From TrEMBL:
Domain Glycosyl transferase family: 82-333
Protein name (Swiss-Prot/TrEMBL): Anthranilate phosphoribosyltransferase
Function as written in the Swiss-Prot or TrEMBL entry: Catalyzes the transfer of the phosphoribosyl group of 5-phosphorylribose-1-pyrophosphate (PRPP) to anthranilate to yield N-(5'-phosphoribosyl)-anthranilate (PRA).
Residues holding Mg(2+) 1: S100, E234
Originating organism: Paenibacillus montanisoli
Residues involved in anthranilate 1 binding: G88, N119
Binding positions for 5-phospho-alpha-D-ribose 1-diphosphate per the UniProt entry: 88, 91-92, 98-101, 116-124, 128
Amino acid sequence: MAVINEIMTMPRALNTLIGGNSLTREEARGVMEIIMSGEATGAQIGSVITALRIKGETKDEITGFAEAMRAYSNHVHTERNGLMDTCGTGGSGIHKFNISTASAIIAAAAGVRVAKHGNRAMSGKSGSADTLEALGVNITLTPEQAARSLDEIGICFMFAQLYHPSLKHAAAPRKEIGIRTIFNMLGPLTNPAGADRQLLGIYDRNKTETIASVLGELGLKRAMVVSSHDGLDEISISSLTQVSELQGGIVRTYTITPEELGLTTRSLSEVIGGDAAENARIIRSIFHGEDYGAYRDIVLANAGACIFVGGAADTLQDGVETARAIIDSGKAANKLRQLIETTGELTHVSR
């Protein structure tokens, strides 16, 4: 557990921010330690995160907050090299189905070790936890059980509510102010297993480079932070997607089109999902070869990126073709079956 910063106080932080100045990385970490420890009042939390939003969060501020949140989380102890996460920010306001969840399963079937981090729906109709539960996956694994799932079948799911209990102190202020804040960016930056590779979708295209730089500061080896021109926190098949790619400590930003990935441009309306049951149905239909339309194509784009970042393909295009082969061979459906069976068995054995 991190030691509470004895110098930084919430009033001092607020005075700094409302003066238009930024917190250093250490100061930001101290603020988050105060929040995580339960020492800050609701009014202080709401004021500080609102002031940060108005000023605009810097790389150092986001990194400091993330470091403190990581220190206070429950951890999954496993081999971290080559470990992949597909957790994104959400918050796009577009109710598409759970693309990153499907992509994580396909990537695992391609041999990428996947420690998927996620939560229930915050702004959409169904979060990754909701949809996995509807698919039959037990989402309430302990850190020890999650580590066993990862070791046995190459994939685990870590339900954010169980791994970040100290976030309860910020829950009420966040709900009361009702705006996007730095907390919307922190979930994807705090993988409990310490994943060193990530495909991270973000709702704000102006922050892809900042978040990619933060991932580098947090020790990730490879990552792609993506945000599409049509508002998705995913790689889109309806528009250009902005990518900030982290590799070797360097961030490179560029755009990609569906055609560059060997896919056809489709209407955004074709990837809209529904509630957890409907999104689970969509994922099953893709995995079982019943869907060859836009749902499948957008999953191919994002799963291909996961496979590329995870090191199982040399290019994005190769990643897409690998994802296609994984689905067509039945390996994706089989990996989902393994995940359902293993998470159920682990929970049963533990009891």
